[in-house]
Amino acid sequence: MQQRGVTVWFTGLSGAGKTTISKAVAEQLRDRNCKLEVLDGDIVRQNLTKGLGFSKEDRDENIRRIGFVAHLLTRNGVIVLVSAISPYRAVREEVKERIGDFVEVFVNAPLNVCEDRDVKGLYKRARSGEIQNFTGISDPYEPPTNPTVECRTDLESEAESVDKVLNTLKSMGYLIED
Q1: pLDDT for the residue numbered 1
Q2: Is 86 a catalytic residue?
């Protein structure tokens, strides 16, 4: 397969399946020898955006910085898989406009499902008040109004979600069968 640069932005609540799906998509793209980079929100926070908190301003700045890196890679022909909660619609739209070649993937699972999947115990700590500004509990999540792809991880398998993303990349001309 040949490719064009694109940012595939996975957004959704903690525990919805963003990292799981993006890793599986990355594996499929690597099997096709695509140039790609994965920007996972948790890893980016440990390195590129260390020191930013969880206020709305800091969250927006975090997303802008991830978007800046994604833009640089995308314009150089790399497929960039971003997995970040990115709770605010306006900054996602801002990043989308900057990048241009942008596929928004709404990884959608109800809050109760995300809480049931919570292996780190973050939701429990947020509900007890131990964690402040936690998306979905004490801070809002603004779902996309018109995502390119919606993966309902409570209703479909991981493979179905991955296929949706890959088929979208093909239909939009970002992946071309040889």
Answers
A1: 47
A2: yes
